[in-house]
Write a structure and sequence with these properties.
The protein is α+β, with helices and mostly antiparallel strands. Helices cover 32% and strands 18% of the residues.
């Protein structure tokens, strides 16, 4: 293992042991440096030691960190896998495994930071991407916040149905704070309006005392639908309508978020172009067809997370917005600086302080179990070693009697 040159700081570490009483506590004073040659920390609560790479992308890897970080950076920019194999002299399966591992790390970071419910969104756009796989057709649904250009959520499925849209909007709802006015712009897919209402609603207690709460949609929730009519692969007409809410309120939210003067899906389509550019499986005419949906999902999280945290957005960096290099995560106040690729790969997600409750054991039903459930009678086990002497004597006596009878 390569010796790390990063300074060790025990105050920013936490114990990853699930059985430890101080699990997940940062800065509690129970962590100390155990070794510097191979960076390790020690928890004084459970007396366990753990590697500085525990819970990160580099856990268990023996390749140099600089080399791995460079390869993941190229993958996040859409560099072909075969070019990386040829340039670095690596095995194709190794690069594919690193891409999958990076996608899993980015998914953990996205869930911990973006889906924490801290995004103050007032305008969301959603759309789907159709991709060809090996003997399959894959649909990738994406959602983003227009004001900050933040990628909120993405789901992958073989079917373009309400289940795909429900999953997408549930993830998007986990990112957003409760607001009074929200505009959601989509295309003409019929599953969107009902899925949006199911996702953006809260429990409201209407009557005092006992009784269930009613589920009501957010006040001033507006849904704008943009339908493009094409002829010979050219857009000839665009139909814009408000499927829910008043036209005045939807127009007010549109102008407030600086999304133009007409209802559109231009921002999510621009994000679709970024994903198609950086993920070879989404390219319309290529030979990099996806074989498994897990690989496509890992690439989606890698590109989406680096888009949010690592790469400055050209539009947000202009004087009209922030006037300096700004990422979507900085615009959404999720971070205060541009992340490096190594910082993203070394980020540790703090686990919850309390362990999740274990499911209660199933109660035993009364009465005799049915015949199909009754266990088969246990067969006597065969004893190991030589049989006892009295058994040998019985066997010999039976053999002699058999010989005497036949003679």
């Amino acid at each position: 293992m390569q010796k790390s040159t990063e300074p060790m700081d025990a105050s920013e570490q936490f114990c990853p042991n699930e059985a430890c009483s101080a699990r997940g506590k940062v800065g509690a004073g129970n962590i100390s440096i155990h070794g510097r040659k191979r960076p390790r920390y020690k928890c004084h609560s459970c007396k366990k030691t753990f590697s500085a790479r525990k819970g990160t992308f580099f856990e268990g890897l023996r390749t140099e960190e600089e080399k791995v970080t460079m390869v993941v950076t190229l993958l996040s920019y859409g560099c072909p896998l075969q070019a990386i194999v040829h340039a670095f002299g690596l095995d194709e399966r190794t690069v594919a495994a690193w891409q999958k591992r990076a996608g899993e790390q980015c998914q953990r970071v996205h869930i911990a930071l973006v889906e924490a419910g801290k995004v103050k969104s007032q305008h969301i756009q959603a759309d789907e991407i159709r991709a060809k796989g090996r003997k399959i057709i894959v649909w990738m649904a994406l959602a983003m916040d227009v004001t900050t250009r933040l990628w909120l959520a993405g789901t992958v499925s073989q079917h373009r149905d309400h289940t795909l849209i429900d999953r997408l909007l549930q993830h998007a709802r986990a990112c957003c704070q409760f607001v009074q006015g929200l505009l959601v712009s989509t295309d003409g897919f019929a599953a969107y309006p009902k899925s949006i209402v199911r996702a953006f609603r809260e429990k409201v207690k209407k009557q005092a005392g006992r009784g269930r709460c009613a589920l009501e949609a957010w006040p001033d929730l507006c849904i704008a639908t943009v339908i493009k009519h094409t002829k010979k692969k050219r857009v000839v007409e665009i139909t814009r309508k408000v499927a829910r809410g008043t036209h005045e309120k939807a127009k007010e939210l549109l102008l407030l978020t600086k999304a133009g003067t007409e209802f559109n899906t231009a921002f999510i389509e621009r994000l679709n172009g970024t994903f198609r550019e950086r993920l070879a499986s989404l390219t319309r005419k290529c030979r990099h067809a996806a074989a498994r949906m897990e690989t496509l999902e890992a690439g989606m999280y890698l590109i989406g997370c680096t888009y949010n945290f690592c790469f400055p957005h050209q539009e947000l960096s202009k004087k009209a917005y922030f006037g300096g290099p700004t990422t979507p995560a900085m615009a959404a106040a999720l971070t205060d600086h541009i992340w490096g690729m190594r910082e993203l790969l070394m980020y540790k997600v703090v686990p919850p302080l309390c362990r999740p409750a274990e499911p209660a054991p199933l109660k035993r039903s009364r009465g005799r179990p049915p015949k199909c459930v009754q266990a088969a009678p246990a067969q006597p086990k065969r004893s190991r070693g030589r049989p006892p002497k009295y058994i040998l004597a019985q066997v010999l006596a039976a053999a002699r009697a058999r010989e005497a009878f036949t003679s």
